[in-house]
């Protein structure tokens, strides 16, 4: 019997096995591709969701911080406009009291224990000569009685050579300071030692150390006074105790006084506290006797010092003044001519010359030495004046 199934009537899925396999594989591949796309899209959605969550969280945190900061601010007070007060100028009484007196041209000072003419002149920034003239004090009379009332010239006084300015005595004193007396303002406390002055100026300074003998001091002071020369004296407290009249004379005649310690020890061998004590005791005695301070001028005994000594001295308000020329006038073997020749041979601009108050050699040669120094074109000044313009 003839088979009724024709090739066209056969099941297409079974009629061609090769074709069916291809189609099946294609379908499977399509399904896999769709699944991969779906998975990738799910990843994207998760990433977008996480990013959105991060942004929202950050915004929430920032908002919370801003809100907390705003809430922590104190409430601002309402500003109230303040009306300016009208200031009524004080009524000036143009009438002058009949009891008001004109300034007589001087002020009065009552002498206290320890006062000297030079100390009083320093206090009011005038000169000893003007005080002597106004009070009729003879030259050479330096003894002041406690309780005595002295007239101190002001700029309005004919004795001071000035005109009435209306300034207070303190203001007048400041104006007179630069020209009436030697000053130490050019030297400040420092651990940097001074060995000489500027080499650009033909100035030299005579300095005298006083540690033991004083026999030659009156002769030295006379030579300086006769030549109208001011020097710098470095005094120990012990020397001040033993020679109060000479100390007052040194101050009254316009010389500067520096600190040479109290007992003249080797400071390198002393502790810091001992150095401070030595300087303080000498300063106390100098102020009590001469009426002036030794600060900031200081010279170490024997020239013995190191960086530590200079530092401690600076902390106490001083600056070490060394020397350029050592006259060796303290040696008994040195003759007066040898001392003089040694000084002149080493002389140069800014020289600081070391001599001693107890040296008979220096006392003998000083009048001629001053003439010799001047003849070489040098001006003799105090140590601070070496640095004055």
Let me know the number of strands: 11
Rg computed from alpha carbons, rounded to a whole number of angstroms: 48 Å
Listing every helix as H and every strand as E from the N terminus to the C terminus, the arrangement reads: HHEHHEHEEHEHHEHEHEEHEHE
Per DSSP, what share of the residues sits in E-state strands of 2 or more residues? 5-15%
Mean pLDDT across every amino acid position: 81
pLDDT < 50 stretches:
1-9, 91-101, 156-181
Which geometry do the CA atoms define? Answer: elongated
Decide which structural class fits the backbone. alpha/beta
Number of helices: 12
User: How many angstroms separate the termini?
Assistant: 151 Å
Q: What composes the largest sheet? A: 6 strands, parallel
């Amino acid at each position: 019997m003839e088979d009724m199934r024709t090739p066209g009537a056969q099941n297409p899925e079974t009629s061609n096995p090769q074709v069916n396999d291809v189609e099946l594989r294609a379908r499977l591949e399509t399904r896999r591709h769709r699944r991969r796309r779906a998975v990738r899209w799910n990843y994207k959605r998760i990433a977008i969701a996480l990013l959105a969550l991060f942004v929202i969280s950050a915004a929430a945190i920032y908002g919370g911080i801003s809100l907390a900061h705003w809430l922590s601010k104190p409430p601002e007070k309402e500003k109230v406009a303040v009306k300016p007060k009208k200031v009524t100028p004080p009524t000036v009484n143009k009438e002058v009291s009949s009891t008001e007196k004109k300034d007589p041209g001087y002020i009065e000072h009552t002498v206290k224990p320890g006062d000297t003419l030079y100390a009083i002149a320093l206090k009011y920034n005038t000169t000893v000569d003007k005080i002597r003239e106004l009070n009729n004090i003879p030259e050479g009379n330096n003894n002041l009685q406690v309780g005595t009332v002295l007239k101190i010239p002001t700029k309005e006084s004919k004795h001071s050579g000035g005109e009435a300015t209306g300034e207070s005595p303190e203001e007048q004193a400041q104006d007179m300071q630069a020209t009436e007396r030697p000053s130490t303002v050019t030297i400040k406390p420092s651990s940097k030692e001074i060995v000489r002055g500027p080499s650009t100026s033909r100035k030299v300074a005579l300095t005298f150390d006083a540690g033991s003998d004083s026999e030659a001091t009156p002769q030295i002071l006379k030579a300086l006074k006769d030549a109208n020369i001011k020097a710098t004296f470095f005094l120990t407290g012990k020397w001040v105790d033993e020679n109060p009249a000479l100390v007052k004379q040194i101050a009254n005649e316009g010389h500067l006084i520096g600190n040479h310690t109290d007992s003249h020890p080797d400071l390198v061998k002393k502790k810091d506290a001992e150095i401070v004590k030595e300087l303080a005791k000498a300063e106390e005695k100098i102020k009590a006797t001469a009426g002036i301070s030794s600060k900031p001028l200081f010279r170490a005994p024997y020239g013995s010092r190191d960086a530590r000594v200079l530092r401690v001295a600076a902390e106490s308000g001083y600056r070490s003044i060394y020397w350029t020329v050592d006259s060796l006038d303290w040696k008994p073997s040195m003759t007066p001519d040898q001392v003089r020749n040694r000084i002149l041979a080493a002389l140069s601009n800014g020289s600081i010359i070391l001599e001693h108050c107890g040296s008979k050699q220096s006392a003998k040669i000083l009048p001629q030495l001053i003439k010799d120094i001047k003849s070489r074109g040098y001006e003799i000044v105090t140590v601070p004046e070496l640095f004055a313009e």
